[in-house]
């Protein structure tokens, strides 16, 4: 748990339990774009308690106690997609503050063969590449987690410009 200045409070919350008063948590996401400008998206499993069977950003989740934002996004990407990221020295492209915490978003460009991904079966049922137009249509139809349209447009707008950081990739991913 964190305070409003992102400082650890020492308090811990368990998944599914109410947060202590004033407690905030850290969420992380990575948006992976290919050279064609498409975003790698994942479909959440039907059995998930939050947003089952909806499409989402490339990978993401909550930081564990003691994890930094970078450590959390590296772990989530490896767990959900089988992609080992090394984001040492990389900061989030942007942070979205919401009522219960902070969401750090990392933007990365990399062409990935979907067949090479190792999906976490408990979390992810499917992955695909999607254009801006496709993601916005999915958002409107309810097939995508209901992020603000302006946020989704910003993520695509930031691709290849401010916020997009060159990240070295290991040869085996």
Folded structure, characterized:
A 4-stranded mixed sheet has the order 4-1-6-5, with helices on one face. Helices cover 19% and strands 24% of the residues. Helix 2 packs antiparallel against helix 3. It is of the alpha+beta class and 173 residues long. The protein has a single domain, classed as Nucleoside Triphosphate Pyrophosphohydrolase. It has helices spanning 69-81, 132-141, 149-158, and strands spanning 25-33, 39-44, 55-56, 59-62, 94-98, 101-109, 124-130. It is globular. This is NUDIX domain-containing protein.
Topology:
Elements: E1 25-33, E2 39-44, E3 55-56, E4 59-62, H1 69-81, E5 94-98, E6 101-109, E7 124-130, H2 132-141, H3 149-158
Parallel strand pairs: 1-6
Antiparallel strand pairs: 1-4, 2-3, 2-7, 5-6
Helix pairs in contact: 2-3
């Amino acid at each position: 748990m964190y305070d409003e200045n992102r400082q650890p409070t020492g308090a811990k919350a368990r998944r599914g339990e109410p947060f202590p008063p004033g407690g905030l948590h850290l969420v992380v996401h990575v948006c992976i774009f290919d050279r064609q400008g498409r975003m790698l998206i994942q479909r959440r499993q039907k059995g998930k308690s939050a947003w089952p069977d909806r499409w989402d950003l490339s990978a993401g989740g909550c930081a564990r106690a003691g994890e930094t934002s970078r450590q959390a996004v590296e772990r989530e990407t490896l767990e959900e997609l089988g992609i080992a990221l090394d984001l040492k020295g990389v900061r989030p492209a942007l942070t979205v503050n919401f009522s219960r915490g902070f969401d750090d978003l990392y933007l990365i460009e990399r062409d990935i063969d979907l067949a090479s991904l190792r999906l976490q079966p408990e979390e992810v049922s499917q992955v695909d590449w999607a254009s801006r137009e496709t993601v916005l249509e999915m958002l409107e139809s309810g097939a995508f987690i209901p992020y603000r349209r302006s946020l989704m447009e910003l993520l695509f707008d930031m691709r290849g410009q401010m916020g997009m950081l060159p990240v070295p990739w290991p040869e085996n991913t």
